[in-house]
Design goal:
72% of the residues lie in helices and 0% in strands. The radius of gyration is 17 Å and the shape is elongated. The protein is mostly helical and 170 residues long.
Length: 170
Amino acid sequence: MKRDWRRGLRNAVSRNDHRSAVAGAVAGLGGAIAIGLMELFSFVAHYPLAVIPFATSIVLVVGSPNAEPAQPRALVGGHLVSALVGLAVLKLTGPHAWAAAAAVGLSILAMYLTGTFHPPAGINPLLVVSGNLPWTFLLAPVLAGTLLLTAFCYFWHRTVRRQRWPQRWL
């Protein structure tokens, strides 16, 4: 009898059944741990990782790990491409509201063209242009944050869910 509930729990977690409260609780725990670790890293490094884009990314990658936008190419590439578009638009136009809107639209196009479509990354150009952020934003928090998030998700899916993630790296 004891083994039956353990097996059921393990199966619900490993298959990521969206109808299961257990699978949802485990995914929620994973998201909370990931964001908590990123916040801790930010505190220790004395540099904010701007968790807004990463919070939405962790929901996608932990909650729907088999989706194309949840794969490392899209996760890392989407954030880098969209931030780069935002920085380029900012350099060309300055920090205007219309430029922020244009940067978001252009980043969607750029992510499609590069095969790195990751919807949560759409906030990056908005943050860059409206906040008049420096080019260093591309390295920290964007690159550092996405690499940390990828490492966490790899560990989470392999050890907690006991599933293969990612489906593909590139």
